[in-house]
Amino acid sequence: MKIYGHPMSTCTRKVLTVLAEKGHDAQLVVVDLMKGAQKQPEHLARHPFGVIPVLEDGDFTLYESRAIIRYLDQKLPGPSLTPTELRAKALMDQWLSVEQSYFSTPAVKIAFQRVFYPMRGQQSDESVVEAAKAEVARTLDVADKALAGQEYLAGSTYSLADISWMPYLHCLVISKVEDLINDRPNVAAWWKRISARPAWAKVSS
Ligand SMILES: N[C@@H](CCC(=O)N[C@@H](CS)C(=O)NCC(=O)O)C(=O)O
């Protein structure tokens, strides 16, 4: 199995976390985003939208991180990351969708402004950070309410939904806006719980 991705990419990290949780090793083939390798014909042949990650499993190619993590969870042995109970599974899907629709974009925007642009010597814009923080805050308020009295997004079971949020919560930490997490007690306790897992420690170190 090969993952075409980058160790610092949020979407790749979701996939690597699932692999680590399942106790499975795959070959990470680094696509050099700084050099634009994701837009070269070789990579476009794997991913027509020119982004990462891509999974190659024998003669099967799959792109889109949330599709890849579902595939890996079903395919690989090891602990299941999908609840079996109907409503818990539906909640997992709901929170995967919330992450994609209302959380990942503003969280990544903050990381670009606060971390990646300065790293590349590019000008950042604090007004973009402020607007993105407001969007993140709104989403985390909803998550905080949902996490009151339950350990994980889908209920009592750690699932793909929790994994899909982790790289974006980490964006907030590296961007020095972790108050967005810490100011919300249920989100803060959940982040502490999930980020302490060995799989995440392996992927984020
Ligand atoms: N919806 C896609 C998003 C993929 C994506 O945006 N990947 C980023 C890295 S996390 C990327 O390749 N960025 C480079 C670019 O946009 O050119 C997924 O979930 O896989």
From TrEMBL:
Gene3D superfamilies from the UniProt entry: 1.20.1050.10, Glutaredoxin
UniProt keyword annotation of Transferase present: yes
One BP annotation, GO: glutathione metabolic process
Record InterPro entries: Glutathione-S-Trfase_C-like, Glutathione-S-Trfase_C_sf, Glutathione_S-Trfase, Glutathione_S-Trfase_N, GST_C, Thioredoxin-like_sf
GO cellular component: cytoplasm
SUPFAM superfamilies hit by this protein: GST C-terminal domain-like, Thioredoxin-like
CDD domains: GST_N_Phi
Limits of the GST C-terminal domain: 85-205
GO MF terms held by the record: glutathione binding; glutathione transferase activity
Annotated ranges, domain GST N-terminal: 1-80
EC class (word): transferase
Transmembrane regions: none
Recorded superkingdom: Bacteria
Keyword Transferase found: yes
E.C. numbers: 2.5.1.18
Keyword annotations from UniProtKB, A to Z: Transferase
Protein family per UniProt: Belongs to the GST superfamily.
PANTHER family: GLUTATHIONE S-TRANSFERASE RHO (PTHR43900:SF3)
The protein's name: glutathione transferase
